[in-house]
Amino acid sequence: MTLLTDAEASKYWNERHQQETDLRSGGDISFDEATNYMFYLRRLTMLMDRVGLQNNPVAPLYLLDAGCGKGYFSRELAKFGHQVDGIDGSEAAIAHCRELGGGPRYHRTTLSGWRTPWLYDVVFTVDVLFHILDDAEWERSTRNLASLVRLGGKLIVGDWGEDGDHVYGNYQVVRGRDRYLPLLDACGMRFDGWEPYRFRRSPIGLYTFTRIG
Amino acid sequence: MLIHELLPLVGDAQSVVEVSQSGDALRELLRAPAASAYRAYVPDGEKMDAGTVVVAFLGPKPEAHIDAETVAPALRELPVGGRALLLLGWPVPELPYHRLLDELVTAGLQVLQVVPLDKVSRHGAHCAVLAARVDRLAPLRTHLSDAPLDLAGEAPDLRALLRLTGEYVFGDLLSRPLRRNLAAAGDRIKEQDERIRALEKEIAARDATIAKAESRLARARNDLADLRASTTFRIGNTVVQGARRPTRGIVSVPVGLVRIWRKRGTPGERPGPQS
Prior knowledge:
By secondary structure, chain A is an alpha/beta fold.
């Protein structure tokens, strides 16, 4: 099957965010809204385990939600007292996020294009990188996200835990640990582990890396 | 983080040495475990070991806090592996850490983490410094980490130190315009506060002037009403109205004068305040 071009993928996601319900649009489209709610909660608790259970309003943690879609994770993590930036390439999704507000700051940008003078305690990208179909853009995005993590900070990536790549449909290319580990090791990130979502038959899980150099 | 979460963060404390002399206050706040010996600091007293944690409450109020110079001798007595847990009574955005940092570095302690605290109004401690006496760099910790200290872990390697110094240099550069902007914003707020106070004074002076004018107006209205109610004015008014319309005046002037004469001795009808 021929994969979508960058322009087609961008159009696809913008239309999907306009047409689909809140969680289904950025979640798993094969599930209904209620199931997607469960799926989002499962991943949120996994993020909490990695971000930690401490907060402070005076000196908060700074998080980047890369590929925030309609902003579910950004808003929920902002409720915990963290300062969250949400970035996404979809104009419709960012407009929706800004309309809902809730604390995070949203910016329309690609993952490879986000520039800021501030580093983050945690950068997370949940089920987004496998929607970047072009390998070179995937690598640019992954490198850019890693560069935004401060020393001791974490990079959390949602993708599958096997070796090798696998194509699903015409808009998903999952990439395995043989891609992530060497690339991020070269970026000064230590691999801490991969944990599957254990949600229905999802093959995806969270990689966690810590910046050590 | 809650204040009683701090001692578990420091790791196993076999003995806790308090420099503040707070009585039981600090011990209770920290909920020092019964298993650890808790004692007040005595200069050159009982020797400290690697299981010792020096605790103190530093801050701006001499009646409640001690200063960096007072805690320094205890820090210098800590052997390698000994730790310090220092509560600070200054708000985090205004933290004057320079004197304390001097003493910590002089005593050979590495600052491992500065933990902002919750419920400040209850105990007055805004944050806590976790530090340890080291002879090599201890593993770096992250902001809001709640894992117990591990001094024996892997020391940061050259790449980590390069990253650390790089982040410091860039962070230092970026903090400069922010510091300047913050100071400028502070100056603007001060100027605006002064301007607001001047305007408030001006408004108060105008309010006083208005009150005086209103008082004068009320008195003038009373005088006018008294004048209009007087017999002299009513007779004069009747005659003047008659002179203006002589045809009617032939009747109205005598009738009016009779009416005034009948009502003599009774106060005249005063016009309303808006007339």
